[in-house]
Amino acid sequence: MKYGVMRPGHVQIRVLDMADALKHYCDLMGLIETGRDDQGRVYLKAWSEVDKYSVVLREADAAGVDFIGFKVVSEEMLDLLQGRLVEYGVEVNEVAANDLQDCGRRIRFVVPTGHTFELFATKEQTGKWGISNVNPEAWPRDLKGMGVVRFDHCLLYGPDVPATAKLFQQVLGFDMAEQVIAPDEDKTLIAAFLSCGMKAHDIAFIESPESGQFHHSSYYLETWEDVLRAADLISMTDTPIDIGPTRHGLTNGRTIYFFDPSGNRTEVFANGNYHYPDHEPITWTADQLGKAIFYHDRVLNERFLTVTT
Fold this sequence. Notes:
Blueprint: E1 5-15, H1 18-28, E2 32-36, E3 42-45, E4 55-59, E5 64-72, H2 75-88, E6 93-95, E7 106-110, E8 116-120, E9 150-158, H3 161-170, E10 175-181, E11 189-195, E12 203-207, E13 213-220, H4 224-236, E14 241-247, E15 253-259, E16 265-271, E17 282-285, H5 289-293, H6 302-306
Parallel strand pairs: 1-4, 5-8, 9-12, 10-17, 13-16
Antiparallel strand pairs: 1-5, 2-3, 3-4, 6-7, 7-8, 9-13, 10-11, 11-12, 14-15, 15-16
């Protein structure tokens, strides 16, 4: 948090049918609906999150992601970061307060991979779902499905990952927690896993020729047993599965990937590495990408590499 970016704040995901999407994100995964707006968007949160929402669903003709927002420590820091972005040569647009429900003003910009990001400092806080801040219980007893703990990160595909990683590091203060490099003489960066705190990553990018591609949104569970239970629920509901349960080499998370009814990939995972600012990046070489992504099989799943929205 060198420059005041605290954590992922929200992601707006495009879905083809809202009723089907809510069965996936609420009934199966356990996110909780907290509001709707006059644009038809639906706002969701995980039970442990204190902000009013972290996931926004928008019905559209094509699946994918509209934008990803990060929360910063204060309105003053938001002004400072806006100045840093402009000084760096990034075009910044301001979005008025309450364009997203109960969220303050946001500053929006596009990174070299073609994805839209925004920063904000203020959002209504409703506290953990069903948990008091005074003498709290361990967890709510009325959770649905997987009972995901929090929205954790997104993985995005697009061109010019080195320039995108540089922007996040030099302007926004993220650290490179893990990276994948090509076998060429320059050791070109082809994947960047960036952290603004102690997590294994808060945003990740993989090099791809087509800009603005959404690979997955990811949600945290507490234990490997929770991931196995999630796999059972995926099977019980005939939800399309991508791969897992398995372990990553990159980030060391225990994971399973599956698809929402619109074709957007979803991940739930547990455990994983931690990162401090004085840690050197963990480096993987492209010839070991199979082991990096799927540690047990050490074989790449072609669908995992090519299917995006």
